[in-house]
Amino acid sequence: VPNDLLGPAEIRALAERLEVRPTKTLGQNFLHDPNTIRRIVRTAEVGPDDVVLEVGPGLGSLTLGLLGAAGAVVAVEIDPVLAGALPATVSERLPHLADRLTVLHADALRATIKPGPTALVANLPYNVAVPVVLHLLETVPTLRTGLVMVQAEVADRLAAPPGSRTYGVPSAKAAWYCAVTKAGAVPRAVFWPVPNVDSGLVRMVRREPPTGASREETFAVVDAAFAQRRKTLRAALAGWAGGADRAEQALVAAGVPPTARGETVDIATFARIAANRA
Ligand code: SAM
Fold first, then answer.
1. In what order do the strands lie in the sheet containing 199-206?
2. Which residues are annotated as a binding site for S-adenosyl-L-methionine?
3. What ipTM goes with this model?
């Protein structure tokens, strides 16, 4: 990891020079703590063989750290000023690594990323963190690992196992693609401006998806199962199955008690329920 990472003074100077006023709607909280950047790069375990996909490079804090460790970085930024300024920031500070960087000015929720990136590493814009992660895991099949920073509560939800209090739609859908674990807490003081939530790191490792039903079919069951949290699956899946009796048949055929609740069901079992729809 390079030594000349962006600290508080550099971040403020860069923002002033570019006339950047961080906006909440785009989740613009910039890292200004080199230790946190080094920690993220280390925890991501990226090496020269990796092509990193970074969502929301912002002023470049994490990008500079990643360029020292990875073979290449593809950075997708929605803000035209930030996307435009990034190549110059990198050329100034790490001229010998500048050709490793590709910047795409695009919305990560809609962008079509060419296959190639092997690792997703990002300090994500918090309001769209879960949809961005799911969209990229779905559309960039070359991604093998991920290390993302998200709001602490979202980290809990993404990594929650079935049966735990925070298990829900994000946990079940992320588990379709990956084994997901929490990789540590990050205090709010490492950002400028300081957000009003704490953050957490989430590690993802790609695995084979469940078999038997497609992703669309399985996610339809997941959405129905959690739409009415307190209901039994028999009741919650009635609309999806075309009646409570048919829901019960699919559940029994999948080996799930009709009185169970979605909170206890893992993604492979959701796929099995989907596969047994009459
Ligand atoms: N990586 C930088 C850092 O750690 O300092 C910035 C992180 S900041 C939390 C999130 C960044 O994502 C901002 O630069 C913001 O403009 C960008 N962003 C927000 N929504 C986006 C989207 N839909 N697609 C791509 N970038 C987005």
1. 101-105, 72-77, 51-55, 119-123, 145-151, 199-206, 178-186
2. 29, 31, 56, 77, 107, 123
3. 0.99
